[in-house]
Structure formats: C-alpha cells, structure tokens
Design a protein that fits this description.
By secondary structure, the protein is an alpha+beta fold. Helices cover 48% and strands 10% of the residues. Strands 5-2-6-7-8 form a 5-stranded mixed sheet. It has a two-stranded antiparallel ribbon with strand order 1-9.
C-alpha cells in the first residue's frame, strides 16, 4: 500500500522501540495508542464499555510469536514504543490476563485476551497484509467508534485512507527534494556536497541542526546500549519461545575478549561484526530496547556496521557516525518512497536487504567514497538480496532472522569495499534495483511474506 506522498525524515527511519518486530509490535502499539487517544479526544471513552480488536493477514498469522497481542494491550493502555519499559511488559500482560481488566484513557474496561482480541487468520483487509480493526462498543452493544489501521513496515502506521499516523512534521519545504537515487546524485553534483550533507540540510526542514545531532547521537547511544546488553547476557541464556534458541552473542563475545591469539587473525574484525549483529538481534528477539533501522527484523545490521566503523576504522569519530546515519537514512528514504520496507509486503528483501543497502552506503561515505560510489555500494548490497523471503520458523523473529542480520552486516562491508575499488560507474543503477525489489515483492507468493506458511518455517526441523 502506498500512502500519499509525504516528506520522510531520516529520523522516521531510525526510531527507538522494542522488539521483536516493528511491523507486528511497534506499529500495532502505535495504532492501539492512537485509537485510545481518539476515544478520549472525541469524548467517547465514557460511552465505551468494550473494545474489540481484530488482526488480519500477516498480523494474525505470526502476531502471537511477534508480540502483537502484547503490543495491542500496551498501546491501548497509552504506552508508546519509545518510552515503554521492556522490563515491565511481562508483569503488565500477566496482570491483564489474570484480572481481565485494562485501563484505557483513564477508564477501566473488561478485556480478555481470548474474547477481545481476534486473530483473523483467513481474512485480509484490502490495502495491506498488516491490517487491524479497532471497535469500541457501548453497554448495549452499539458501535461507539471504529477505525482501521495498517502497519506498513518499520513501525509506520497509516489509516484506512493511507494517511500517516506519525512522523516528523515538516516546517519548511525541503531544500533538496529527491524521488530517486538519480535525483539525489544530481543534487550532490550540483551543490558539490556529499549525500550526508544533502540529508542534513533536508533535516533542517524538520528541526534545527543541534536537535538533529542530539537525536542522531541518542540513536547511536541506544545502539551501543543494545550491543552491550546483548553481549553481557548469561552465556547459558535462551530466547523466549518454544524453539529454545540459545543466545550466541555472549559466548562469542567472551571468546573474543579472552582469546589473545585471535588478535593475529586478520579476519577477527568480522568476528566482532557477527557479535555486534547477533547481540542486537537477540535483544530484539527477546523484546528488548532496540533501534528500528529501518525495521526490527533487520535491527542488527546498521548497528553492527556502525560498531565496525567505530572500532576498526582509523580516525572514526562522532561526526562520522552522524554522517553514516544521515547517508544510510537518505538511501532508506528511497526504499520507503519507491518500494517497501515491510516483510509482509515484499519479503525480507525489504527488511534485511534494505538495511544492508543502507549500511553499505553509510560505510562507503565515511570511508571517503564519492556519492557515485555510495550509490553503487547501496546497489550492490540490495542486488544480492533480491528475492529474499521472510519465513520465520515458529512465527518467531529468531530463525533465520538473527543469523541473517550477521550475514548481511558482513555483506554490507564487502559491498562498500567493492564500490570503493571502482569509480562509481556501473551497469545497474540503485533505482533499477529498488524497482526490481518492488516488482519481485509483488510477484512473491504470500506464504513467503512473514506468514510462517512457507520456506524454512515449514521445512526446518524445530530445534
């Protein structure tokens, strides 16, 4: 589903939330919160005796494993992904399940996870697989208010007419608008500026520069906290769910910091990239605090490559990290505008593929690449993710999602290095690859788009 054209900020693509899924958890939480606020704003909450929530398509098929039910409860209770405390979620959900009561906009309502939350697994709403219907009834069963929302990837939510429900507000026209990579490159050529500078000047239409830097710095801080948390978990800890997947980041981290001989191995930096990506993805899978970048299913890729830059690239600094994020965001906007970052819409090529492309672009810029080389790195990274399916085993964001983040992070580094060895001239443009990704997603069978009805989800032996 394509929403009406809107200006997208880099900081719409990098947002702070919780795992395990931006489309199945962050988006539904925002939708539920929006519905609760609409009841309050329209003075309908006092008339409301019951709220019914219906989930459709991919949300219904994999919502339980992706935390959609918990997200709905939290959103109706007024929580937001950016501020909710992950440590309190389990106790909150348990309390609602046991008491069968939920406080919405200050009013206590009866709410049963079984009776008031429906997983409509055989139905779809017309505009997107990730559809939700919220309905408030009075004590006589009459409809007080009803609304349909779609979670269209990366935590973005639109209403039934495609209008966005959140996002940074534009205060002035963008000085350098672009709808394609070709237009973006033309802007850099005309102004003799790198992509990060074009992106920064566009961000000035949303907020002043100090605030943009402060928010980018906060994004980097949360990424670091997430990597640290994932590395410092117990080496024997498991992820939630019936797959009993053991965390790998803590053990690999301990091996790297204790194995002195590893420093003589020229490929050790790639081992660290694996640790960084696994740590974030495992935190995401367990419902921890992550940065949506540009989705939660792909949340480990950009932090891993950023940590690689910070730890192993000479002269890395905070401004470089900002420029990395600005460049990556500029490329991510192209995917959001011209294709999709929703696994339920185009498969995992839209999540892991887009994140890999964004990371390759960001790294190429801070390595000193030209705008043409940045565009080529982004193209290389996506070209080799075309057709990637989204087939989570057991409906959980664990297999193959976690390991896939580690592979894509390394792939991004290789794409950047390959682009830097050339002059930016290549046969297939990034625009062509993005359009190919969109077409491939449209042609892809629905069972390969975050439904757990195809691919590894049906062929893997549960471990």
């Amino acid at each position: 589903m394509k929403a009406p054209h809107m200006a997208i900020s880099v900081l719409d693509l990098f947002t702070i939330g919780i795992g395990p899924s931006s489309s199945h958890c962050v988006g539904p939480m925002r939708a539920a919160c929006s519905f609760a606020k609409s009841l309050q704003a329209n003075e309908l909450i006092e008339k409301t005796a019951r709220i019914q929530v219906q989930l459709y398509g991919s949300l219904a098929l994999t919502g339980a494993g992706h935390g959609t039910d918990k997200a709905i409860l939290l959103g109706l209770a007024g929580e937001a992904p950016e501020t909710v405390d992950p440590a309190n979620i389990t106790s909150f959900v348990t309390e609602v399940a046991e008491t069968r009561h939920l406080v919405v906009a200050g009013k206590q309502l009866s709410f049963s996870l079984v009776d008031n939350l429906e997983f409509c697994r055989s139905e779809l709403l017309p505009h997107h697989s990730n559809g939700m219907r919220f309905t408030a009834f009075d004590q006589n069963g009459a409809v007080v208010h009803s609304a349909i929302y779609y979670s269209v990837g990366g935590g973005f939510v639109v209403d039934e007419d495609g209008n966005p429900m959140q996002g940074n507000q534009l205060h002035a026209p963008l000085p350098y608008p672009y709808q394609s990579a070709a237009e973006l490159l033309e802007q850099t050529k005309k102004e003799r500026l790198p992509i990060s500078a074009i992106a920064l000047r566009n961000e000035a239409s949303f907020r002043d520069e100090p605030e943009t830097f402060a928010r980018l710095d906060r994004i980097w801080q949360v990424m670091q906290e997430c990597v640290r948390a994932g590395c410092e978990r117990s080496v024997d800890s498991q992820l939630p769910g019936n797959l009993h997947v053991r965390r790998r980041a803590p053990q690999l981290y301990q091996k790297l910091i204790t194995n002195q001989t590893a420093h003589s191995d020229s490929l050790t930096p790639l081992d660290w990239v694996d640790v960084f990506a696994l740590a974030v993805s495992e935190e995401n899978a367990s419902g921890g605090r992550v940065v949506t970048a540009p989705t939660n299913g792909a949340a480990g890729i950009i932090p891993a490559v950023l940590h690689y830059y910070d730890r192993f690239v000479e002269n890395a600094d905070l401004q470089g990290i900002r420029n990395f994020l600005l460049t990556a965001g500029a490329i991510g906007i192209l995917y959001k505008q011209n294709a999709s970052i929703s696994g339920a819409e185009v498969g995992c090529q839209g999540e892991v593929g887009a994140a890999c492309s964004m990371a390759a672009a960001g790294l190429t810029e801070v390595w000193g690449g030209t705008p043409a080389q940045v565009e080529q790195a982004a193209e290389i990274a996506m070209e080799h993710h075309l057709g990637l399916t989204c087939d989570p085993v057991g409906g959980l964001v664990q297999i193959p999602c976690i390991e896939r983040n580690a592979m894509a992070a390394s792939h991004a580094i290789h794409a950047a290095r390959l682009a830097l060895r050339g002059d930016g001239k290549h046969c297939v443009s990034l625009d062509r690859v993005i359009e190919t990704m969109r077409q491939t997603g449209a042609d892809m069978h629905s069972k390969y788009k975050e439904t757990s009805q195809g691919g590894l989800a049906v062929n893997a032996v549960e471990c």
